[in-house]
Amino acid sequence: MCDQHRSAEQDYDQQCLEKLAWAMKQLNIVVESQDLAKITELIVQTMTGPWRYFHTPEHIFEVGGSEHPIEVLAALFHDVVYVQVDQSVNFNLTYYIIPFIRQVAEHLVIRDASELPADKSFEMVMQVFNFSPSQTLSPLEGQNEFLSALVAAKVLDPFLPPELIIQVVACIEATIPFRTHNAEGLNNSDILYRRLQEITSQLNLKLTPEELRATVIRSVRLSNRDVGSFAHLNPARFLDNTWNLLPETNHHLKYSSSYTINQYRTALQKMEGFLNFIKPEVIFHQFQGYPTDETYNDLVERARKNIEVGRLYLGTKLFTIAFLEALSLRFGRVIPVSTLMGEMPTESFVAASLVDFLPEISHPHQPKNELDQQILTLLDKGRTQSASYDIKNSPLATYMVKSMGFDEIRHQRNRAQEFFQNVISAEEFLAGCDMNVKKTVTDGIVKLFDSRKEALCRS
Q: For residues 404 and 447, what is the distance between their CA atoms, to the nearest angstrom?
């Protein structure tokens, strides 16, 4: 482990330990320092796995806030299980999960009632999530949140009474994202409140109606912070988070010099598909006047604008990568992006890049509206930070936009979809693109290859 990585983990350990200690003190719970250290190690080790780029310790510290100990505890545990990112359940967490969950083929399944041990905290987690024995868990319907809540309940079980554990579990349940209203028109917070009322009565928990209402409000506050980047005032920050999410489920992007054009394109396609699917109205939660209608509507509208920015930004980059992919198929089927674009620059290495060989555009197309101007600025100047696998700006996409204009980019993005689906061939796709752009970019790639040849043959 490098010194920088070790130092970061030590810092995470300290922050996590401090948050755990603060939360327990606020709840008047006495926990020995060695027990707090063990919980800290369990959380931080999981959250610093090799594929964690967005769902990291920084994320859980931010989501927990500093207002209430239940929110802090729920946030620390809410992402400890993320099967799609980690490709499995972290080995150290299986101690808490295996008595209740088994694997069937590629799916995780709650054990049959006859196999399940008598365990009050597990029963409570199942009831909060409205899950049942023998149920197959789905990544899109609360699998990760349920398993994370289960770990939280079992880890905290020796220290917290069930009245506090159910509040932590309820907050984690609320982080299941993007759910619509039910058939009765109830939102997820209303449903959770009803469920908590029923469980409190069944289990004889000492929680008042006001305490249950406060629990749901805390769950709203926590879950809204969890998806807060959707409503960021700066679209560039929203895109930063989007770019941090990409390598979590597209693991080949970790290797910036070797991921292929097709792999990069597929990652962008999946994210664009998600942004085309998501409705801003299902991102944030509201319960009994919290947050206020004004605040809630503002969150929704800011999310709507960021999603609109993300769609055009990704669409522009998708056309650009489709163009490169079509060209690359003239000489190979598995071509790294770095082969045509050049290596990502680092502190110790800067190589020639395709954009070094593209000419200035004398009369660039001008944006026609505020959205187009925003996207051009983001492409040209960049997001607020580079990702580990990608630079923050998009010089080739910028060249395409300035050469062709956004109207043509939108048209070509639709044609690119036909190319991706094999409705048209790579050559048919290229034939329908701007001839001058095609020649200029092709010439630039040839010049990049020539520069490599000169470097290789240098005596």
A: 22
Number of structural domains in the chain: 2
What is the model's pLDDT at position 1?
47
Residues 242 and 189 in one domain: no
Q: What is the DSSP string of 28-44?
A: T----HHHHHHHHHHHH
What residues form DSSP beta bridges with 290?
287
Q: How far apart are CA 441 and CA 337, in angstroms?
A: 14
- Can you give the residue range of the structural domain that contains 246? 231-456
307-311, Cβ contacts within 8 angstroms, sequence gap of 24 or more: 307/230, 307/275, 307/278, 307/280, 308/371, 309/235, 309/238, 309/239, 309/371, 309/374, 309/375, 309/378, 310/235, 310/238, 310/239, 310/242, 310/271, 310/275, 311/272, 311/275, 311/276
418 φ/ψ angles, rounded to the nearest 5 degrees = -65, -35
CA distance 270 to 256: 19
Q: What pLDDT sits at residue 448?
A: 93
Q: Are residues 283 and 309 in the same domain?
A: yes
Count Cα atoms within 13 angstroms, Cβ side, for 280: 19
In 76-209, which ranges are E strands? 101-104, 107-110
Tokens 């209430």 belong to: 68
In whole angstroms, give the CA distance from residue 444 to residue 439.
8
- Residue pair 170/219 in contact (Cβ under 8 Å)? The answer is yes
**What single letter denotes the amino acid at residue 307?**
I
pTM for the model: 0.93
Mean pLDDT per block of 10 residues along the chain (459 residues) reads 60 96 97 97 95 94 96 98 93 96 96 96 97 96 97 98 98 96 91 97 96 98 97 95 92 89 96 95 96 97 97 97 96 92 74 89 94 96 88 94 97 97 97 96 94 84
Task: Specify whether 118 is located in the same domain as 47.
Answer: yes
Query: Would you tell me how many other CB atoms lie within 10 Å of the CB of residue 368?
Result: 11
Closest C-alpha among 123, 55, 60 to residue 83: 55
Token code pair at residue 193: 């409140």
Pairwise CA distance, residues 259 & 367, whole Å: 32
Residues 129 and 250 in one domain: no
